[in-house]
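Dear colleagues,

As part of the handover before I leave the project, I'm documenting each prediction I ran so the next person doesn't have to rerun anything. This entry is a single chain, and its sequence is reproduced below.
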Amino acid sequence: MQYVLLIYEDERIYGGPEKNGPALQEMIAKHMAFSPTLGAARKGGAGLKGTASATTVRAGNGNRTVHDGPFAETKEQLGGYYLVDVPDLDAAIAIAKRLPLSPGGAVEIRPLLRGRMSGAALDHTARAAGCDARRSVEVFISPRPARLSA
């Protein structure tokens, strides 16, 4: 079963929303050493840039609004994730317990929904939502998407 391990930490430890402090380089080195220990169980993962680079699209009253920054103001921010394929939740917990974390950090473990959307299903779903799937993907992968109207 596939699980995502969501890493939450206080980004102030890493130099704030810009993530430019020396502690970040130390943590990256720890993850670079840890990641290979997962072997074939590791299916993906990445660190995330700080909240200063975040953009949130919020739904409400039939339209979408775009905001700079994360959705919510919290003490901990989503800093990265691992995608693992392991037999069960206990195996995912065992990995999460070994993840490099700053003091006070947390790992949220969530199973992925089963099944995948094909390109045709994605196009259909996007059209039903009034979106162009190709434009949605472009916005999703863009490092800093342009402002879009509803």
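The first strand starts at residue 2 and ends at 9. The chain has a mean pLDDT of 81.

All the best with the project,
I.
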